[in-house]
Amino acid sequence: xxxxxxxxxxxGTALDAATFYAQTFPDSAVGAVHRAPSDYPAGKEGDxxxxxxxxxxIPCLGLNGGPGFPHSEAFSFQVATQDQAETDRLWxxxxxxxxxxxxxxxxxxxxxxxWQITPRVLTEAFTGSDREAARRAFEAMMTMxxxxxxxxxxxxxx
Length: 158
Prior knowledge:
With 158 residues, the chain is an alpha/beta fold. It is 32% helix and 28% strand.
C-alpha cells in the first residue's frame, strides 16, 4: 500500500476513467477494482466502488462517490511533453474523447478532470535565467489553447 495516494471522486465512472488514463499515458495502469459490499447512497451492492490505478507513476484511487463533488481546475495533472508530437497526441486523446479544450495548454477530460499538457521547452523558458525570453514565451503562450512548440521556440529566440 502506498503511503500517499490521490483520491479522485467520480460519479460512477472511475473504472472508465482509469482505463482511459492507462491506455493514454505512459507508466499508467489499472490495478484492483473493489466492489461495494452493500447498497450505498450513490449505488448498489456489487457496483464498482473504488479503482486503484496509476497515472504516469502517480498512485490514484478512483472513488465512485456520486454526483456531489465534481472536479474543478483547482486540481490538475501537469504533463511535461518532449515535443509537438507528444503534445498533440495527449491533447487530442483528451479533447477528442469527449473532453474540452481550454487555454494555455489546459484541457479537461470527459470526466471533468483538468490536465495541463505542457511542453518542456515552455517550462524551461519560464524557469531559465533569461527573463526577457521568459516574458516572450509567456506572452506567446497566453494566445494559445494547445501549446505550439515552434511558436514558443520562436518567441524565445526573438
